[in-house]
What we know:
Blueprint lengths: L1 H35 L1 E5 L14 E6 L11 E6 L4 E9 L4 E5 L2 E4 L2 E2 L13 E4 L4 E5 L17 E2 L3 E10 L5 E2 L2
Antiparallel strand pairs: 1-2, 2-11, 3-4, 3-11, 4-9, 5-6, 5-8, 6-7, 9-10, 11-12
Amino acid sequence: MEKSADKKENNIIKFLKDWVMPIISAAIIYLLLNKFVFFNVQVPTGSMIPTINIDNRAVVTRIYNLDNLKRGDVIVFYSDELRERLVKRLIGLPGDKIEIKNGIVSINGEQLQEDYVKNKDKYSGSFEVPEGKYFFLGDNRPVSKDARYWINPYIDSSAIEGKAQFIFYPFADFKSLK
């Protein structure tokens, strides 16, 4: 009878070692990676077409060093004004002077080469990005509700959550983002 109890106890320990511990370990690793390294985001609008289509899902790496941000990066940030997480293209860095004339964007007097913008609009306006702030536009300019139309067109550095790296869903749209 004692051998049967020992065997049952050994089976329970073996089950815990073989199944439960790896599942718990994987869950903890996933949660830590998701909190500190990456997360995913779904894009609900067409503001980034053709770069990102409606309902595409992207993997986003968290940003800890803002010096790594470059003009043209696709960035995820939280807008206090709109009270939502947004995905837009980084156009203006702190200190930049932005001039938009009939949809053509110039930064500090130099025209910005925007191969990713397929649909331009006729918007005109100018902006001066304060220190510690950033300026974002959508790639699909005629439909994008972006910095051009916000009450406060600048996003604080503390609101920047990460850089979109690639589309992973739907699989037909799988691609790296530039």
